[in-house]
Amino acid sequence: MEVGKGDMSTLAIFGGKPMFDSIRPTGQLAVGETDDFFKRARQIFDRRWMTNDGPFVKELEERLKVFHGVEHCVAFANASIAIILAAHNASDGEAGEIIMPSFSYRGLPHLVRWAGHDPIFCDVDPELHTLDPRSVEKTITERTRAILAVHNVNAACDVDGLQKIADDNGIPLLLDSVYAMGNTCNAARTGASGQLEIFSLHATKLVNGFEGGYVTLNDAALADKLRMQRNFGINETGDIPVLALNGKLNEIHAAMALTCLDQLDDIMAENRQRFTAYEKTFSNIPGLSFARYTDDVRNYGLVLLHVDQDWPLTRDQTIALLRAEKALVRPYCDPPLHMDPNWASYGRADNIKNSESLRHDFIQMPVGKLTSLDDIRQMAKLMRWISANGEDISQRLEQGSADQ
Amino acid sequence: MKSTINDLAIRGGAPEFEAPVHVGQLNLPTWESFETGFKGIFEREFYSNHGPLERELDARIADRLGVKHAVSITNGTIALMLAARALNVTGKVIVPSFTFPATVQCLAWAGLEPVFCDVDPERHVITAKTVEAALTPDTVAILGTHLWGHICHSEELQALARSRGLRLMYDAAHAFGASDGNTMAGGFGDLEVFSFHATKVLNATEGGCITTNDDDLAARVRTMRSFHETETYAQVPVRMNGKMSEAQACMALISLDELDVNIRHNKTLTNAYWKRIVEIPGLRLIDCAKQGLHNYQYLVLEVTEEAHPLNRDIIVNILKSENILAKTYFKRAVHRMEYYRDRYPEFMDTLPVTDWLSSVIFQLPIGQSLTEGDVARICNLLEFIMTNKDTLDVIES
User: Fold this and answer.
1) How many separate helices (H) and strands (E) can be counted in chain B?
2) Which of A142, A206, A213, B268 is 20 to 30 A removed from A24 (C-alpha atoms)?
3) Mean pLDDT, range A157-168, rounded to an integer
4) Contact A240 B338 (CB under 8 A)
5) Which of B50, B109, B243, B245 is the mutation pick for testing A, counting most A CBs within 10 A?
């Protein structure tokens, strides 16, 4: 669409032609050289080895081990399965509680429930969105089995503060590092903190393996156990000493992940360019800014646009308007988990005010391979125009919802 | 061809097969169909999250099996976990011990407890009688396995489940394409779970699916398999990522196209094995095809008394040394696995048929990469072993 004509009917939400012909997603959807993928696939065919700890899974684990600077890497069918096993192993299945940030991914409490534990929700830092150790400390009980912290989109979590609480209470610190591949924590690559860190190879993440996940850790015995658990718990004698499942990554997904990993530097560089373009083109639009990204962030996998009082529309109106233009933006961590009716009966810190006040603040903007620098410029231009015509647009949007 | 026992690999002879031959289908699509399918994925740039291929697969499986709903999942075990949890019950579930461990493992993940029951010695599946013997007051469900693709005694199990108010689900990992009379596996009980692991007749590398005629259960498992708000169809207690990727769905769809060819090949091989093995004393083939359609994906044998002084383990070891990687499913039944014997010692000596089958059953290679010539060589070797069984026993001891 052309903007700046002062004609609201050009907005897709009011019936105009969408700005983009095809969707601009909020996930990476990066791929390596498809020729390289097909070459690897050919090897899978030649070997007739499609899953069960195949050569590509092993190669991927080796490369990720080196990338993260850790002693062990165990690949999984997806990150959810890895988190379920990690939560189960925290107490060898003895039911209890697992502490997690409330301002976080909506899947986390479900996964903890699969492991038989109750999720307990804590508050986060108002700027970095990371699990607040002071909030965690107050919710520790005899039933606490683990702290599940999250390295965020915009900052690594306070690993030292959280590890101290974990150590004082004899429980493991587990890290959901799904957002943090390629980022740093305490000046080293993420992957080596806590008892283990869990990463994702989902298509929307930095390295696209269709679906997939992996765990990094330095504990050899736990790595062996996880390997056994992803293959039904079968040990070298054919016995099964532990509760287990099928968590195997297949060779085609591993081949895809390896092919994408080959291009990781380029993928991260392009993400950074996009992020810089966002900052530049959106600068000085009243009411819009970006979440504070710390120096730990290197992957710029997600772009979090902050909306405040000076912006003429509500966050949700803005989302609806952009989605109509085929920019598939979405809210971020809203509602906070402790306010989700699913988890109403579970425990929480007394005060989770930061998570509550952050809930309406952010929009996840389009990122990744399908979003060009020009797309970003177009979105900025649109937002500037909305800023200038905010009152009229807001009125018409409210009129529209009143009419319905 | 072995002429003296010194030609056997265990005696230093050259192995019968230069490269290992496997149990497990490992059926590959043609390279052309793979390339076309995956180029399509790269063009669409749609890699997972309920993509067009996943939806097509669900529709085609439902159609093929004559069942209302098919819901594809990451793998068969995750599908079992989701299915067991979707039943929305708490308590004990009657389950065979003579089954792949995942059948039982899914229960603990769904907050349920196993009660092990025995199986029928002919078809190796649970019956109303074996289930009834295991019933407890807090039993809430029955989970049967269509082992080797033999459909469980579904009518009597259904009647029993109905009269006792129990849920009934099946692990149909072995049974894609099999039927009992006119009903295909997929339509029995409250729901059924399939595996599309590479060793199965339908190969998605990894993969699985849940089938049901119950709209409510279908809505529940469809909701449970991802966290997507747009894929929310029912109130469910928990969700997870159980999504099948477009890559897996692509593999499964091509494999579905080639299913009949692969089943026909399995049948040809089964017949070739059958002709020879009926002539070999000490070995008995388990008949798969009495009930209706079959996929012939497992070639299952029993080692009988006549094999004495040889036994199942000696025979399988000899085969392995010849690069024939025979399998001994299920040499250790699930109730005898450490995790279960620690928690449920009360079942230790209550399953005589299971324990007997664990000691006499083994599986031979079958599938796309095996030829009738290979079958002849395997049968020649088996015949040779049995002809020389008394001499071989001396070597072993």
Assistant:
1) 14, 14
2) A213
3) 98
4) yes
5) B245
Alpha-carbon torsion, ordered A20, A21, A26, A31, to 10 deg: -130
Among A240, A246, A253, select the one facing B245 at the smallest CB separation. Answer: A253
Min Cα–Cα distance to chain A from B101, Å: 7
Omega within 30 of 0 (cis) for the link into A25: no
Sheet with B283-285, side-by-side order of all strands: B283-285, B299-303, B361-364
Give the nearest partner residue to B246 out of A34, A42, A210, using CB atoms. A210
The answer to whether the CB atoms of A234 and B101 lie below 8 A apart is yes
In B, which residues are within 8 Å of A252 by CB distance? 205, 247-248, 251
Strand partners, B168: B142
Cross-chain residue pair B245–A114, CB shorter than 8 Å: no
Contacts of A241 in chain B (CB under 8 A): 337-339
First to last CA, chain A: 26
The full 3-state SS of A7-75, as one line of letters, equals CHHHCHHHCCCCCCCCCECCCCCCCCCHHHHHHHHHHHHHHCCCCCCCHHHHHHHHHHHHHHCCCEEEE
Q: Are strands B283-285 and B299-303 parallel, antiparallel or unpaired?
A: antiparallel
* Token output for A229: 């658990």
Distances (CA, A) of A387 to A309, A319, A393, B381: 12, 14, 9, 82
Outline where A150-250 has alpha helix (H): 159-168, 220-229
Instruction: Name chain A contacts of B76, Cβ cutoff 8 Å.
Output: 246
For the stretch A3-23, pLDDT in tens is 544 688 899 999 999 999 999
Question: How far apart, in whole angstroms, are the C-alpha atoms of residue B106 and residue B85?
Answer: 9
The helix or strand, by DSSP H or E, that contains position B145, with its residue range, turns out to be strand B139-145
**Under an 8 A CB cutoff, do B241 and A51 touch?**
no
Backbone φ and ψ of A14, nearest 5°: -105, 20
Contacts of B241 in chain A (CB under 8 A): 78-81, 107, 211
Query: d(Cα A154, Cα A160) in Å, to the nearest integer?
Result: 18
3-state secondary structure of B87: coil
Task: Tell me if ipTM is over 0.90.
Answer: yes
pLDDT confidence of residue B287: 83
Residue B101, token pair as written in the block: 């461990």
Decide if A240 and B331 are in contact by the 8 Å CB cutoff. Answer: no
Q: Taking CA atoms, what residue in B is nearest to A37?
A: B38
Interchain proximity A45–B369, CB inside 8 Å: no
Give the number of C-alpha atoms closer than 13 A to the C-alpha of residue B245, restricted to the C-beta side.
29
pLDDT (0 to 100) of residue A5: 45
Residues in CB range of A388: below 8 A, 6 or more apart: none
CB-based contact, B295 to chain A, within 8 Å: no
Hey, are the CB atoms on B332 and A238 less than 8 Å from each other? yes
Q: Is B90 left (phi over 0), alpha (psi -120 to 50) or beta?
A: beta
Query: Tokens 């769904």, residue?
Result: B110
User: pLDDT by residue (tens digit) across B292-315?
Assistant: 899 999 999 999 999 999 999 999
B237 close contact with A: CB closer than 8 A: yes
How many angstroms separate the Cα of B325 from the Cα of each of B10, B140, B271, B318? 14, 40, 20, 10
Give the 3-state secondary structure of residue A77.
coil
Mean pLDDT to the nearest integer, A303-316: 97
Closest CA to B110 of B140, B144, B70, B133: B140
The pLDDT confidence band at residue B33, using thresholds 50, 70 and 90, is very high
- Please compute the mean of the pLDDT values over residues B194-206 and round it to a whole number: 97
Point out the residue among B35, B109, B331 whose CB comes nearest to the CB of A245: B109
Give CA–CA dist B167/B324, Å, rounded: 41
Q: Do B101 and A256 touch (CB under 8 A)?
A: no
Please name the amino acid found at residue B234: A
